[in-house]
Amino acid sequence: MPEDLKPAIKASLIIKAIEEQYxxxxxxxxxxxxxxxxxxxxxxxxDKGKIETENTLVIDSTTFSCTSGGNxxxxxxxxxxxxxxxxxxxxxxxxVYKVTKNVYTPAGSTILQENNFFxxxxxxxxxxxxxxxxxxxxxxxxLTGDQLSFSSEVGTGTNSVLLDTPTSPMAIGExxxxxxxxxxxVPFEFGININVGQGIFVSFPTLLPETCQFNSSSTAxxxxxxxxxxxxxxxxxxxxxxxxxxxKMFNLTAFLNSDDEIIVKALDDFYSDSTxxxxxxxxxxxxxxxxxxxxxxxxxxxxxxxxxxx
Length: 310
Fold this sequence. Notes:
The protein has 6 helices and 17 strands. It has helices at about 10-20, 35-40, 80-85, 230-235, 240-250, 265-270, and strands at about 10, 40-45, 55-60, 65, 85, 90-95, 95-100, 120-125, 135-140, 145-155, 155-165, 175-185, 190-205, 205-215, 220-225, 250-255, 260-265.
């Protein structure tokens, strides 16, 4: 059927995303770099029927300029806001805010800060002639595809998200790539400003919100091309279930080496790499044996379920 003709994504790219999301490292030159695995693809078939698309623009390759002056309160010696928010662990680049959770003591403070209070705020200004066009702002994590915030707008619109709070903490070392996309059922042009930042306890318990503004270089960004996002079309399965399926399909095993790298091998390769031999002679009983009685089936009927389309 025509609606079953859908794109696919290489499984190796999913493995790279898992490494980045969970801060783990699969050792190179092992199974995940093999020709056998590099030729494996995941069909982007989340829902039955054809892929529904709309006019969409993901703000992950848009040119921005930093317009904020002054210094950040986080570091000593002081660093400018533009420098802090264009470098790890709070790096904004081409519309994506790449953050990593750290526990640290702010400059001038003696209190260990356990939450980073990452902020990402979007302001969209429609171009002339598009001020009455309805549109949506969706903020999400590009690593997982998880939606973080959604709003429907007409005219100037805003949307924002706050991450890593005491009630909803991130894990230490956890990363998120926060970005947004603009969708519309009609042609739409706009300019966009994004404020990124974090909350800092300069004087506990007073939380000082710190932000850095980035403006798009164009005020007439068009939303006219239908994009297909792999994170929205991939099967809705857990990461652990995806890995279990790969391990069962190829009969794999994994272990950790001294460099904290995860080595993944086919089980046959794992055994053949071993240089240790074991003599099992003393465990083998050769002077007696047992034969079980065959089960007395008079007939056997083989039934198979009808094929189903997911």
